Amino acid sequence: MNKDKLIVANWKMNFLYNNASIFCKKISSKRKSIKNKFIICPPTALISKLSLRFNKITFGAQDCHYEKFGAFTGDNSAAMLKNINCKYIITGHSERRKFYNENNVILKKKIKSIINANLVPIFCIGEDISVKRKGNTKKHLLNQLINVLPKNNKKKIVIAYEPIWAIGSGKTPKIEEIEEINLYIKSVIRKINTNYKNTKILYGGSVNKENSKIFLNNNNVNGLLVGGSSLDFNTFYSILSYKIL
Ligand code: PGA
């Protein structure tokens, strides 16, 4: 069961190359004791140098443009990220939705472009606190899923459930709540496309050394998307090396 969990480090806009490579060097030296499959998503500027040097680590990107090429100053396409050895691309993160106004229409195109580039999208969904308080979480997630996920896709995708109010706040839902939501997401995506029946549903938002054990021990949490706790090597390593009972 252990091997089935996927742990994704979302470094966001942190680290210069030196510190990032020290981190990757430490992880590489501990690879044998790491119990869970993991992916590191550094800032785009660092990926190519890191992936050349640490070719045993799986890297992902934090975002991409939906077009392959063109006049989109500052952007990178999925094909370009594949070209620098990315295997996964996070998309729909709440920070992208908030700061760059990314909506379902844009995200649908992004997911399509990631799949077409033969990379795996890690599609983030989640409700803000007002949606939660009104009891509309499931409705909100349903909308994010049905309007974005491709119906005829046969390739792998990953979903990350990240309640916006839990990101960087130190607060998390109870494990029972996460489990209920993950089961709900599973039932929705299976209806969208039967090929999604084995899709991994990760949890993200204030994951730390302690709560990660509770989350990873739950059969319906298939992994974690880790922000702040992925920036400290010892913390991230202890999450990665946790052995499920
Ligand atoms: P956090 O971030 O772990 O720092 O809450 C998670 C995320 O934004 O993916």
β-sheet strand percentage: 15-25%
- Can you tell me the CATH class? Alpha Beta
* Rounded average pLDDT: 96
Task: Using the 3D structure, state the CATH architecture.
Answer: Alpha-Beta Barrel
State Rg. Answer: 17 Å
Please give the share of residues in helix. Answer: 25-40%
SS field, number of helical segments: 10
Listed once per kind, the bound small molecules are: 2-phosphoglycolic acid
Strand order of the largest sheet: 2-1-8-7-6-5-4-3
How many DSSP-defined strands? 8
> What oligomeric state do the depicted chains represent?
single chain
Structural class: alpha/beta
The main sheet comes to: 8 strands, parallel
Instruction: Give me the CATH superfamily.
Output: Aldolase class I
What sort of overall outline do the alpha carbons produce when their principal axes are compared?
globular
What do we call the CATH topology?
TIM Barrel
Low-confidence stretches: none
Ends distance: 10 Å
Count of folded domains: 1
Structure description:
With 245 residues, the protein is an alpha/beta fold. The protein has one domain (2-240): Alpha-Beta Barrel (TIM Barrel), CATH 3.20.20.70. The chain has 10 helices and 8 strands. It has helices at 17-29, 44-53, 78-83, 94-99, 104-116, 129-133, 137-146, 175-192, 211-216, 233-240; strands spanning 6-10, 37-41, 59-61, 86-91, 120-125, 158-161, 200-204, 223-226. Strand 1, helix 1 (17-29) and strand 2 form a beta-alpha-beta unit. Helix 7 packs parallel to helix 8. 40% of the residues are buried.
